[in-house]
Amino acid sequence: xxxxxxxxxxxxxxxxxxxxxxxxxxxxxxxxxxxxxxxxxxxxxxxxxxxxxxxxxxxxxxxxxxxxxxxxxxxxxxxxxxxxxxxxxxxxxxxxxxxxxxxxxxxxxxxxxxxxxxxxxxxxxxxxxxxxxxxxxxxxxxxxxxxxxxxxxxxxxxxxxxxxxxxxxxxxxxxxxxxxxxxxxxxxxxxxxxxxxxxxxxxxxxxxxxx
Length: 211
Description:
The chain is an alpha+beta fold. Helix content is 34%, strand content 26%.
């Protein structure tokens, strides 16, 4: 089911419909804050299977994030002439991939593993139309977690609760998750799940947004 954002944007070409193929509240918020008019579709994609198959083929983390974003966009673009935005994010640390935790216990183990280390967020975004990928982009951000105490981790998880389960790193940098870090290198939009500056530049090139 598609939920439409009806408020028009005078800076946007109304002849081209935009769809966000994602159930992510963060990506929805980023596009809304940019003033874009778009619809939302939540495609059915087996993300775990895509990651496993990509890993078995020896794909890089960047390429795997792209495969996930493309799968979402193509699934969302079925029988649609709209320009569909697909995006996904992978987390790697010293060669190991980390998935979005499903429980607070998993979140705690993941944060303990990342504590005192630098990890990389690989964030991909694509545009699809008519069943074809018309543009794609991947950005990396490098984040160094400080050596926080076990008591801090316990209080952090109590404060964030279920909110940290919606993020691949078990943190929201735009929220209390910021307190986990000593250094962040990378675009804040990409860290939140969508390389927004690259996306709006592509939309300008396609005349969807005014130049």
